[in-house]
Inverse folding.
């Protein structure tokens, strides 16, 4: 007998969960969401991500990242229409930043990162390769994702696998039980609403907060992706850049402001982002300084921050239906997307095995 499943949320976590579930022939999957690929709302975090693959967790919490890397690597090598491409990435750190490392990235700037075993070309940077003021770093070939292509591609793969999409705004998680396209009551609901879990009745996770990210999209190409451990402009500001696949431009960032709900780009922050990028990678502007940056747009998105990390667990909705929560991924939605989706499958199978 097929499982009747409703996935609530159509960001990268919801779409990947739906796809992995739908590829198993014993599932009938419906996705219901207020926002779909192509929409641009700050609360709909997935379109605003850079996005790339850089493990952020310590080795003990790395299983979901390891699994996702295998899938993203396959897509970059074999599925160009997915909008994922290989790109060299440089990670650079300052010793003064390591005294109080970013709480969300315990693994990213480690001196001896566990994830070097994932990449054949991992190597330490030489002093001549470091930006001014940075003490050490390393590089390897990772991937960058053009979210404007990848999210619709995911949606298309879901539709190809039989997933039906319904656009709606739920007030309470219980409403999802009646939203299956089959006309049957759902026996399984997947809550992948991200920041929306703060407001969704029956969930109301008040620990969920926006981690505001402001970025600038430019036309300028870069020789590699870059991630830097700190910024002298303040603890909520960051320096990174990544070039999206298939002509998607280069994302320059950024900020990480927990609890800031302002959707309007701040002009002063934008200028600081651009100046920091020029300081560490002047070649991006071809020697022309600020005048050499060809700006496409300014953007603000809200990462779904949860102090306890991602919530991925099963909960009873009523006697006949249970919910699997898959939200609170912060900066980590793409990086752990397939690993988390497969954990959703494992939770479903473990529940069925006990019946």
């Amino acid at each position: 007998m097929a499982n009747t499943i409703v996935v609530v949320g159509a960001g990268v976590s919801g779409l990947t969960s739906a796809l992995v579930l739908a590829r198993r022939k014993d599932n009938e999957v419906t996705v219901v969401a207020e926002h779909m690929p192509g929409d641009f709302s700050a609360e709909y975090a997935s379109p605003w991500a850079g996005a790339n693959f850089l493990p952020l967790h310590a080795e003990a919490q790395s299983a979901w990242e390891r699994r996702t890397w295998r899938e993203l690597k396959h897509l970059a090598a074999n599925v160009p229409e997915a909008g994922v491409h290989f790109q060299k990435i440089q990670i650079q750190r300052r010793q003064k930043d390591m005294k109080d490392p970013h709480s969300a990235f315990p693994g990213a700037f480690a001196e001896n990162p566990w994830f070097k075993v994932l990449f054949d070309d991992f190597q330490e940077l030489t002093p001549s390769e470091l930006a001014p003021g940075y003490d050490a770093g390393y590089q390897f070939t990772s991937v960058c994702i053009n979210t404007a292509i990848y999210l619709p591609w995911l949606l298309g793969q879901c539709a190809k696998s039989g997933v039906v999409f319904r656009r709606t705004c739920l007030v309470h998680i219980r409403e999802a039980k009646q939203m299956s396209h089959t006309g049957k009551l759902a026996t399984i609901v997947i809550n992948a609403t991200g920041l929306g879990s703060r407001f969704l009745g029956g969930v109301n996770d008040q620990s969920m907060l926006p981690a505001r990210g402001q970025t600038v999209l430019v036309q300028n190409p870069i020789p590699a992706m870059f991630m830097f451990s700190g910024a002298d402009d303040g603890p909520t500001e960051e320096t990174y850049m990544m070039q999206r696949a298939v002509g998607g431009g280069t994302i320059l960032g950024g900020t990480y402001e927990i609890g800031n709900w302002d959707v309007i780009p701040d002009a002063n922050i934008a200028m600081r982002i651009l100046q920091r990028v020029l300081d560490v990678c002047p070649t991006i502007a071809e020697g022309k300084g600020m005048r050499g940056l060809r700006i496409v747009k300014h953007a603000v998105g809200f990462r779904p921050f949860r102090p306890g990390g991602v919530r991925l667990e099963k909960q009873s909705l009523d006697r006949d239906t249970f919910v699997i929560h898959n939200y609170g991924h912060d900066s980590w939605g793409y990086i752990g997307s397939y690993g988390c989706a497969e954990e959703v499958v494992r939770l479903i199978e473990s529940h069925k095995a006990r019946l």
